[in-house]
Design brief:
Elements (H helix, E strand, L loop, with lengths): L2 H7 L56 E8 L5 H12 L5 E6 L17 E6 L4 H5 L4 H14 L3 E5 L19 H17 L5 E5 L26 E8 L4 H12 L5 E8 L6 H14 L4 E9 L15 H12 L3 E2 L1
Parallel strand pairs: 1-8, 1-9, 2-3, 3-4, 4-5, 5-6, 6-7, 7-8
């Protein structure tokens, strides 16, 4: 069921700032043919697909609204200055401030540049599964849990993202295709956080929309820890020629009946002309048509190591205008 139909019914970090982020290079993808995207008109005779209208744990879904946030890291600016620039450009603070941390980093208790109105999302790298599942990291995990518990504010935790890509130490491809090992590690970390009293943490599970290798054993569903361990079902993706529907429909259809959906990392390659602002506009419409999406987190940076792509929202005046239009849309809360 589309958001507009339902509304009508009712409705990087202080330490290792880019640790864990990796460029989505064009040569690693196989873009499908470009397909135009236009807003779909609801079919009043169609049977609506059941979706969640609540959930999210300590960071709850706001039904009928989308929390729009970003990872902001801009060349020549410290995090506070970059986040303040976006506040001035958009007219309001980011609803979600996203930062990255390595496995052995000290997770934050306070970050002065996170506005009071914003929610922090911590993306926390992982090690190989055996370092979690064998128990050797239990003390490290417990310390991390106590740090986030000390924040005493609702906090989003995204551990071991993009596990279905051949990128990271915690990915299935780098762990002998052991998808069950990822699930076991995720559940162990979750249990230790619970035991340490980190009840303010909302758990964000977040594969990539595009599994690599694209084989049955590596499907994102194989990594799902289970409903009791996940507050937000998140998915990341960087558009080249793909439409938002091509990227995110399958994930949405799989989890929107069970969990609030978060687009945890998203941006678009500028292929010249108006391709980037057009994609932002198309993405805005896709989100509005999918009411289980409760949060979107942009990858707003031009500092990514080895990347020629300017993912920042103001890479062109037209891109910034399209993003500001999305940000000021009543569905995207300010």
């Amino acid at each position: 069921m589309k958001r507009r139909s339902l509304l009508g019914l009712g409705a990087l970090a202080v330490a290792a700032p880019l640790a864990g982020c990796r460029q989505y290079r064009a040569e690693e993808e196989e873009p499908p043919p470009v397909v135009s995207h236009s807003p779909r008109t609801p079919d009043p005779s169609a049977v609506p697909t059941p979706i969640v209208t609540s959930g999210g744990g300590p960071v709850p879904m706001e039904y009928g609204a989308v929390m729009l946030g970003a990872y902001v890291d801009l060349r020549g600016l410290k995090p506070a200055a970059g986040i303040d620039l976006r506040r001035r450009q958009l007219g309001h603070p980011e609803r979600i401030v996203h930062r990255y941390y390595s496995w052995t980093d000290q997770l934050p208790v306070t970050l002065s540049y996170v506005p009071p109105e914003s929610t922090l999302m911590v993306s926390w790298r992982g090690p190989a599964y055996k370092k979690v599942n064998g128990g050797s990291s239990d003390k490290l995990i417990a310390r991390a849990a106590r740090r986030l518990a000390e924040r005493k504010r609702p906090t989003l935790l995204r551990w071991g993202w993009d596990m279905n890509r051949a990128f990271y130490d915690w990915g299935g491809p780098d762990n002998n295709k052991d998808t069950a090992g990822y699930v076991k590690a995720y559940r162990r970390i979750h249990r230790i956080f619970r035991e340490e009293g980190a009840s303010n943490v909302s758990w964000v599970w977040s594969p990539n929309w595009n599994s690599r290798p694209d084989e049955a054993w590596n499907a994102f569903t194989r990594y799902y820890p289970g409903d009791e361990y996940v507050d937000w079902a998140g998915v990341s993706g960087y558009a080249q020629a793909q439409t938002p529907s091509a990227m995110f429909d399958e994930f949405y259809e799989t989890y929107a009946t069970r969990k609030p959906i978060m687009i945890t990392e998203v941006s678009a390659v500028d292929r010249g002309g108006t391709t980037k602002p057009d994609w932002i506009t198309s993405f805005r419409e896709w989100v509005k048509e999918h009411p289980a999406v409760g949060a979107v987190v942009w990858f707003d940076t031009d500092t990514h190591p080895g990347s020629r792509e300017k993912w920042r929202i103001d890479s062109t005046a037209a891109s910034l205008a399209a993003y500001k239009a999305m940000s000021s849309d009543p569905v995207f809360t300010g």
